[in-house]
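Hi team,

As requested, here is the filled-out complex form for the glutamine run. I kept the field names the same as last time so the parser does not choke. Let me know if anything looks off before we queue the next batch.

— J.
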Amino acid sequence: MCRHTAWLGAERSLADLLLEREHGLLQQSWAPRRQHHGSVNADGWGAAWWTAARSAPARWRRAAPLWADASLASVAPHVAAGCVLGAVRDATVGMPADETACAPFVRGAWALSHNGRVERSVLPAEAWPTAESVCDSAVLASWLLAAPDEIGPRVRTAGEADPTARLNVLAADGARLVATAWGDTLSVLRTDDGVVVASEPHDDDPRWEDVPDRSLVQVDAAGVRVTPL
Ligand code: GLN
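And here is what came back:
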């Protein structure tokens, strides 16, 4: 399992969200607290963020441990956005090890990360030509981002077709977050200036809420909605 984190709210720097929390994505790259599958997320990292300049997000990925990226550590305090999505990767056996297999995957205004694994044969053939990699998560992202309003139903369809699948996805388009809990942990933190959706709490703030398995989480200007899948 990999780990992912997203923020929607007031502008905050990539460093504040991803690198400076007590148990944030940086710490989760070597010491996740709630990860049940795999132990170290050292196979790569990625981040997407949205600015007013264009609808498509900026994306930066590397096929190396987050803790080893001195350039990100230098630049991240200077980059701020109101919507940010970050991920660290523990590659599934048999999946590619290069940067194109690292989340987040991007299509149009959307970016998506996946914690888990899915049998690629249950995903429709139409997803393959637009997939950024042959990695299961990239094919899944291609299919889900072809119909962002259908992420919940499509995750359920894939989960029913592959009962061994773990399908925690986290997607954003700059104004919305959409996440699923399907086989792994997911938590939400509502603060005065925004919302965090993450694989696991990045600190011990008592306001963190655990999301029940098989749920859909939607965050936008209207607030946070958690519904059963
Ligand atoms: N299956 C995906 C990959 O290989 C995600 C792995 C994970 O969640 N650990 O990258």
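Two things worth flagging: The chain has one domain: 3-228. The longest helix spans residues 151-161.

Thanks,
J.
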